[in-house]
User: What shape does this take?
Amino acid sequence: MTETKTRSILKSLSWRAMATICTILLVLVLTGEIHLAISAGLIEVVLKLILFYAHERIWLKVPFGTEQDAEKAPAVVLWLTGLSGAGKSTIAKILIQHFKSQGERVQWLDGDVTREFIPATGFSREERDRHVLSTGFTARLLEQNGVNVVASYISPFRETRAKVRAMCKNFMEIHLSTPLELCEQRDVKGLYQKARAGEIKDFTGLDSPYEPPDSPELRVTTEGRTPEEVAQEILDKMRRRYGTNDAS
Amino acid sequence: MTETKTRSILKSLSWRAMATICTILLVLVLTGEIHLAISAGLIEVVLKLILFYAHERIWLKVPFGTEQDAEKAPAVVLWLTGLSGAGKSTIAKILIQHFKSQGERVQWLDGDVTREFIPATGFSREERDRHVLSTGFTARLLEQNGVNVVASYISPFRETRAKVRAMCKNFMEIHLSTPLELCEQRDVKGLYQKARAGEIKDFTGLDSPYEPPDSPELRVTTEGRTPEEVAQEILDKMRRRYGTNDAS
Assistant: This one.
């Protein structure tokens, strides 16, 4: 705990003003002697200004009851995996807003955004793997530095997700298990249509496999539920596993 | 600024104990009446406990002079570029220690470490570029989240470094311009010997080019200087550009 000496001095003065007026009135009421009351007040000002300042500075050495003393929930990595159109980005955005509203550091890692910055990343198995591993490494470093991570990646391969899990500490694999038919029906980005027309190759769920997690921390469908409900379920699960600062 | 109410209450009590003893002695000395002094003390205890607690809670609303109020120097990305053996990692370690000793968040990104986590990264121009860009993207995210970054990468290509610079905000390109002859003579990892023997291909400085920066924020040789001196020069330059919390 630190604060500047100027702050301690200003605080001492503001307290003295209030407290000495109180003392003068008190002595006046008890004795009825105005001169005595003012003398007491004047001596008190000098003595207690020094005393109060010392008291303030001593308490700054005591971490009890301060922000630094509060037990912070650790940073977590929420890894959303699932088909294109399963609802990953939509739910990620709600999760991000939640962390921000709690005043916590958080970074959204999204497949589409990462690919803008790291070019020449295609969709072959090898390229996907490298892209996911590279993202996992970034998530690891952010987590280690106290930044929560929400990652929304199709990340179709079990083995690659296991490697990412091994890199991170507080890792939650969240499988958005929205059925392929529904994802294709939604087709938010028009990608299924393009893939069906043969304009996109290696499209997960069609001509490239999606390997669902065997034992994710959470498996949840967005079918017949609002994104807010799904996000809430993820946050509840997270709280049970890692605790939270929400009560603060 | 937050602190728990329990802390404010304990602080109020500890102050009251000190201050009321002081008041009782003061009234006793001024009037010579022990009963009056004790009455004054007792009334004061009740009145001022409440007053002090209120005063504490009000000051918690005032950010002036607190840590949150202090102007924090922004996070920076110190990008060390230069030949193998130029001293990048050695100097990076000293820089990292400096940030830590200041209580600042900092992450070291090092070519050798990153390559452990993201496999299948070779040394062709394309593979180097992707590796450096991927690192640059990680540096960007760490910087955005208030984590300082020290990156030690050969990063031989001007264009690629320019892309990394464009991704980050407070970016300092630091060219460790130790001459090739000296790097080869040091040959800490025995890589020059292997490259000369033809065991390593695409070795920067030998059969792969190094494009020195045209206008780096700092160009410094480790020839005839200790790593500590070079690190100090980098830190001085950084302070002049971005300010520092050192005075706090």
About this structure: Chain A has two domains: 5-59, 77-242. The domain at 77-242 of chain A is CATH 3.40.50.300 (Rossmann fold).
